[in-house]
Every structure is written in C-alpha cells, then in structure tokens.
Amino acid sequence: MMKTSKTTPKAVSFLSLVYLILMAFVYGAYIWIEQYRLDQAQYWLASRQLSQEDVIPIQLVGTWSTTTELVFYALFGCAFIFSVYLSRRLGSTLKSFLIWNTVLIATIGVAGYIVSQFSALAIGNLLQPLLLPASVLAALFLYQLWGNLRSSRNRTTR
Cα(94)–Cα(144) distance, rounded to whole angstroms? Predict the structure, then answer.
C-alpha cells in the first residue's frame, strides 16, 4: 500500500506566506540593485573617461539585475507549477493562486510607482519584472473564465 502525504490548508497557507515574503524580498533586492546601478552610472558619466577596468563592474551590476529578475520569474514559475500540481491532486481550482498573485503584482506595482516618484529610477525599469507574471495571470484568468463558462453550459444542457 502506498503512503500518500496529505497537504493541509495550513501548510499551503504557510507556503503561500513564505512565497509572498520571498517575492517581496527579491523585488526589494531588484530595486536596490537598480538604484545602485543608477548611482554607478552617474559616477561613471561624471568621470568622463571609462577605462577597461570600469567595464567589468558595469557588466557585473547588469548581471546582478538580470539574475535578480530571473530569480523573481523562477519563484513565480515554481509557485505556478506547485499550484497546478495541487489543483490536479486536490481537484481544486487555481483561484487562490490567481488572487494571491494578483494582489502581489498590484502591490508591487504600486510600490514601484511610489519608489519612482521619490527616486530617479524609471517606472519602466521598476515594473519590468512584473510583465511576465502579469501576462501569465491574465492568461490564467481567461482560462479560469473559459472553464467556468464551459462548465455552466454543460450544466444547463443536461
């Protein structure tokens, strides 16, 4: 007889909280790196001459920014895959994933807007990590809507 582990709602709520904290932390790191990148760009522009030694730190800061953005996407992707797994296993829908992440993306978007108002960071740079998750959430919303319409049609035709 196979043992199956039971996933409790309490465990899922705890994992959701950890996920939200990690996403906020990674986004905060992204903002910090972007600010550092802007400060360094101003310093390098003020020095008027870039040496070959200056190119390496410039590339490194760009790599940090890209890596942080990829970590943000990876966390979102892992949470999405886990939510799909749970929905298949437990027979539930992806509504909670959709709601949690919509609130998260909206909150981060507002925070990015506020940061852009009080710093020299461009709003486009601050919202860039949100484009892929927002697109996936929009597609998931349409999929959920389509599934609900399809199931309601099946119920009325019976």
Answer: 8
Dihedral sign for Cα 83, 85, 89, 92, please: positive
Q: Tell me what the mean pLDDT of segment 90-106 comes to.
A: 84
What's the pLDDT band for 32 if we cut at 50, 70, 90?
A: very high
* CB-based burial label for 154 (10 Å; 0-12, 13-18, 19+): exposed
User: How far, in Å, CA of 54 to CA of 50, rounded?
Assistant: 6
Crossing angle (nearest 10°) for helices 131-157 and 52-90: 20
List, in order, residues 6 or more apart from 11 with CB less than 8 Å away. none
The pLDDT, as a whole number, for residue 2 is 42
Q: Per-residue pLDDT averaged across 52-65, rounded?
A: 84
- The identity of residue 153, as a single letter, is R
As a whole number, mean pLDDT of residues 76-101 equals 84
